Amino acid sequence: MQFLIRWVLAPLVRVIWRPRVVGAQRVPTTGPVIFAANHRAAVDTAVIPLVTPRPVAFLGKAEYFTARSLKGRLVARFLTALGYVPVDRGNAKAGLAALDAGRTVLRAGGAFGIYPEGTRSLDGRLHRGHTGVASLALSTGATVVPVALLGTDRVQPVGKKLPRLAPVEVRFGEPLDFSRYDGLEGSAAIRRAVTDEIMDAIAELSGQVYVDRYHQRPGSQAA
């Protein structure tokens, strides 16, 4: 499956959608790297691995992996090949286990992708980031590369299952080094400062309006 993705699907996607990629030369080719991106559509996690110069592992909603239909099983295999790590968003312990999986990837020198907002933005704005991304960076010493995805919400609008043809752009920002905070992972204030710095970088890349509160899905209760 990895072979098909890298050598068949990726070139096919580039031919059909012709995504514009900006700043790929900024991505470190070795060592632990966190790709911290905005989140506009379900297709985002397929787009990033297909345009980055190295494999990327991601956290993914557990329900993507539990469908019993043939289509669901095929999707699960595809996402697994892309590097998805399933996480139950309603289970705090499972979420912690997923972050532990991220640390395992990073400590092995791999690349790990995460959406600090925690969910897709339904209003087009960039929302306050959760501090899991800071915890990963501080505990592993990984470099953080901010990523902006533009146009993926038109490729796969909310409620649409099949992707459409629409211009897509992926922007990679300057790598962020947080080694100045070595040993301070336990500080909530430091984790928040690191996360806010990452979100500022994503906002600058994406041009989105930043909202300093967590994104609330329809029907959810405010935290």
TrEMBL record:
Pfam families from the UniProt entry: Acyltransferase
Record keywords: Acyltransferase, Transferase
CDD domains: LPLAT_AGPAT-like
Molecular function in Gene Ontology: acyltransferase activity
Domain Phospholipid/glycerol acyltransferase, first and last residues per copy: 33-152
InterPro entries: Plipid/glycerol_acylTrfase
The protein's name in its UniProt record: Lysophospholipid acyltransferase family protein
SMART domains, per the entry: PlsC
Keyword Translocase: no
